[in-house]
């Protein structure tokens, strides 16, 4: 693919926080400020759609605004804009994503080695 046609996905979307910022972005008793402390972490976010339909998304938290979050999907470089008011549950990983990726790769290679160890040809 030609580099001239490549779209730059590294643009800065971060909300600038300063002394004039609203309290919901600076005081971690509010959801947006709490989530801003977890930018870059892997998380599973569950949304309530309608009255009884839960939908979840898993990804890396990229940015948090007053009424939205941005999640980057694990499978691709797709960014999803999510309404913060429909969030019901968030599960946040304590491990950085790169450690989880290495752990899963090591686990998979270990399982393959163990499976091949007892295989008779």
Question: Which tags fit this structure?
Answer:
121 residues, alpha+beta, SH3 type barrels, globular, disordered N terminus, disordered C terminus
Task: Explain how this protein is built.
With 121 residues, this protein is an alpha+beta fold. The protein is built from three helices and five strands. A hairpin with a 3-residue loop joins strand 2 (53-64) and strand 3. It is globular and about 35 Å long. The relative contact order is 0.14.
Write a brief caption for the model:
This protein is α+β, with helices and mostly antiparallel strands and 121 residues long. Helix content is 26%, strand content 31%. It has helices at 23-26, 31-36, 97-117; strands at residues 42-49, 53-64, 68-73, 79-83, 87-92.
Q: Helices, strands, pairings?
A:
Layout: H1 23-26, H2 31-36, E1 42-49, E2 53-64, E3 68-73, E4 79-83, E5 87-92, H3 97-117
Q: What would you call the shape?
A: globular
Order of helices and strands: HHEEEEEH
**How many strands appear in the DSSP assignment?**
5
Mean pLDDT: 78
Reading off the top of the CATH hierarchy, the class is best stated as Mainly Beta
Termini separation comes to 43 Å
Q: Which residues sit in consecutive blocks of at least 5 with pLDDT less than 50? A: 1-11, 117-121
> Which CATH architecture would you pick?
Roll
- The count of helical stretches stands at 3
Instruction: Provide the domain count.
Output: 1
Structural Rg: 19 Å
The residue fraction in helices comes out at: 25-40%
Strand order across the biggest sheet? 4-3-2-1-5
Oligomeric organization of the protein chains: single chain
Query: What portion of residues belong to β-strands?
Result: 25-35%
Enter the CATH topology name.
SH3 type barrels
């Amino acid at each position: 693919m030609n580099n001239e046609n490549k779209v730059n996905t590294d643009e800065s979307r971060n909300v600038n926080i300063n002394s004039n910022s609203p309290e919901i972005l600076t005081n971690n008793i509010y959801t947006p400020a709490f989530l801003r402390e977890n930018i870059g972490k892997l998380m599973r976010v569950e949304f309530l759609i309608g009255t009884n339909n839960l939908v979840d998304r898993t990804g890396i938290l990229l940015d948090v605004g007053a009424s939205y979050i941005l999640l980057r999907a694990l499978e691709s470089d797709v960014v999803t804009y999510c309404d913060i008011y429909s969030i019901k549950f968030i599960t946040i990983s304590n491990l950085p994503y790169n450690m989880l990726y290495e752990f899963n790769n090591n686990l998979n290679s270990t399982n393959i080695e163990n499976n091949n160890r007892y295989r008779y040809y």
